[in-house]
Amino acid sequence: MKKILALVIIVIIALFAGWYAFIYYASYSEGTRSGELIKFSHKGTIIKTWEGEVSQGISGAQIFSFSVEGKNKDIIKKLETFQGRYVKLKYKERFSKVSWLGDTKYFIIDVIEEESPHFRNK
User: Fold this and answer.
1) Which residue(s) pair with 75 in the sheet?
2) How far apart are CA 96 and CA 48, in angstroms?
3) DSSP calls for 34-65
């Protein structure tokens, strides 16, 4: 009986580890989004995650929400610096969101400040 219980526990742990590895390492898509960085915060009660939003339109009707992994200190510093500015975000979309990594499926892997297309010729 103990062997069966141990085997069941090992199988459950192996399935969870396989699921997590797939969600974490396999990417559904990669791409870029540009817009004004309107929000970037460190939020959560027990598990803190870095979350942000980019407005992709003049009226703010289209908002792109994203997350940043805590280990990406340089990206976090850039986003804090670029608050309120026009940025280009390179992201990786995962198959599913994992609550302790972030609130979204979109994780930023690079950020560049750009000139706003709304104020180019002024």
Assistant:
1) none
2) 19
3) EEEEEEEEEE-SSS-EEEEEEE-SSSS-SEEE
* Residue 3 domain-assigned (yes or no): no
Domain-embedded: residue 37: yes
- The DSSP secondary-structure symbol of 103 reads S
Convert the pLDDT of each residue in 65-97 to its tens digit.
Answer: 999 998 999 999 999 999 989 999 999 998 888
**3-state DSSP assignment of residue 78:** helix
Domain harbouring 56, CATH code: 2.40.50.140
Assess contact for 66 and 104: CB atoms under 8 A.
yes
Cα(110)–Cα(88) distance, rounded to whole angstroms?
A: 8
Give the CA distances from residue 24 to residues 7, 69, 93, 102, in Å, rounded to whole numbers and listed in that order: 25, 11, 10, 12
- Residue (of 109, 103, 97, 120) closest to 41 by Cα position: 103
pTM score: 0.78
Tell me which residue range forms the domain holding 104: 28-113
Q: Is the residue at 76 inside a domain?
A: yes
